[in-house]
Amino acid sequence: MSDYEAGDINTIIDDVDHADDNLGNEAGGSMPEAVLTYLARQLTREPDAVVVEADQRGGELKLRLHVGPDDMGRVIGRRGRTAQAIRALVAVAGARTETRTNVDIVDD
C-alpha cells in the first residue's frame, strides 16, 4: 500500500517554485503587515481606504490600521471578536519570523 501511482494527490513534489516565499517582503514590508493589509481589504467596503502603518522597534512590530469611517464596525466586529481574530492571525504571521506584533485599529 505504500506505492503511489502517478498523479496521486499524496505524492511529494520536489520541483515546487519558491518564488512567492517572500510575499510580505516587497518594498520593505513584512509578512504580518501583508496579512493585515489583505484581511482589512477583504473585510471593508472601501478597500482603497485601508492604510497600514508599520513601526519596527527591536523584535516588535507595531501596526496601525486605518480604515474608512463606515468600515470601523466591520473591522472591529461584535464585542471586538473580528479585531481579536485579526490580531491572532497577524501574530501567527509574525511568529514565523519570531517577531512580536501589536495591531492598533485607529479611529481617524
Describe the structure.
This protein has a single domain (31-106), classed as GMP Synthetase, Chain A, domain 3, CATH 3.30.300.20. It has helices at residues 31-43, 72-76, 81-95; strands at 51-57, 60-66, 100-106. It has 108 residues and is α+β, with helices and mostly antiparallel strands. The radius of gyration is 18 Å and the shape is globular. The protein contains three helices and three strands, in the order H-E-E-H-H-E. It has a three-stranded mixed beta sheet with strand order 1-2-3. Residues 18-28 have low confidence and may be disordered.
Q: How many H/I helical runs?
A: 3
Q: Which percent range describes the beta-strand content?
A: 15-25%
Give the name of the CATH superfamily.
K homology (KH) domain
The appropriate CATH architecture is 2-Layer Sandwich
Strand order, sheet with most strands: 1-2-3
Short description:
This protein has helices at residues 31-43, 72-76, 81-95; strands at 51-57, 60-66, 100-106. The chain is an alpha+beta fold and 108 residues long. α1 (31-43) runs antiparallel to α3 (81-95).
Name the descriptors.
19% strand; GMP Synthetase, Chain A, domain 3; 108 residues; alpha+beta
